[in-house]
Amino acid sequence: MNQLTLVCLSDTHSKFVDVQNGDVLIHCGDFTNWGHEQEIKDFISWLKAQPHKHKIVVPGNHDITLDIEKYPQLKQKLHRYSNFNPEQLLQDLKDCCHLLINSSVTIEGFKFWGSPYSQEYCDWAFQIEGSSQQFWDKIEEGSDVIITHGPPYFYGDKTSNGSRVGDKYLIEKVKKIRPKLHVFGGIHESYGGYEEDGGYRDDAIKFVNCSIMDEKFKIQNKPYVYHLTRINEI
Ligand SMILES: [Mn+2]
Question: TM segments (predicted)?
């Protein structure tokens, strides 16, 4: 049997929390508020200081400088008086973690697939334009862990006014791929772990919203620890 301890967190928004050690540190995005150069550099320093053997990062809609394609447009709106170097910042981050942008990494036989993209919301970074129906076909078959910034529909996606804002096409696709774990953030007020269909199935997928901050951007939650195991077939 091989086992990896995953320590998952999201939506730290330029605050830094103590994180317990484990095999893989996973950040599901929104490590900055505005994608400013100094915020990204501070995050990189924090990341480098963590003892975990493997580190996986997926950016979020606030980490705008890392959305290379959309940045020229976002810069006009949000960074008009700054002169950051998105390519360099992206490279600096890649140098200290597995940065997953619709891509995967395999660690000790487990496949992790990640995407920073979520449904359109106030024209931030990494937004899926129009329907997400085809977008999630990018998720690779055989993924053991799926990491997205935004939640799927029904699990960890309830806002403070009670509405569910998760992505219906994402949950459909995740249930087809059948990873062991789907971890995400995005909706701060819906922190927690949820079993697929109440844990009824033996192979129920675990859904985890690991937002550290609440909806008022106060640190309220702890990183979520998950033990990923596989019993070797004989
Ligand atoms: Mn956030």
Answer: none
The alpha carbon of 185 and the centre of ligand 1 are apart by a number of angstroms equal to: 7
Share of the chain above pLDDT 90, in %: 92
What's the CA gap between 150 and 126, in Å, rounded? 11
Q: How many domains does the chain have?
A: 1
Give the separation between CA 68 and CA 54, rounded to whole angstroms. Answer: 25
Count Cβ atoms below 10 Å from residue 137 Cβ, excluding itself.
9
- Kindly give the distance from the C-alpha atom of residue 61 to the centroid of ligand 1, in angstroms, as a whole number: 8
Q: Write out the residue range of the structural domain in which residue 212 sits.
A: 2-230
Tell me the CA–centroid distance for residue 26 and ligand 1, in Å. 15
Beta bridge partners of 206: 181, 195
109-135: per-residue pLDDT in tens?
Answer: 999 999 999 998 888 999 999 999 999
Token pair, residue 40, equals 């990204």
Distance (Å) from CA 148 to ligand 1 centroid = 12
Nearest to 59 by CA among 25, 93, 82, 92: 93
Output the CA 161–ligand 1 centroid distance in Å. 17
Q: What is the pTM of this model?
A: 0.96
Q: Residue 103 Cα, ligand 1 centroid: separation in angstroms? A: 22
CB 221 within 8 A of CB 19: no
pLDDT at residue 200, rounded to an integer: 85
Calculate how far, in angstroms, residue 49's C-alpha sits from the geometric centre of ligand 1.
23
CATH number at residue 140: 3.60.21.10
* 12 Cα–ligand 1 center, Å: 7
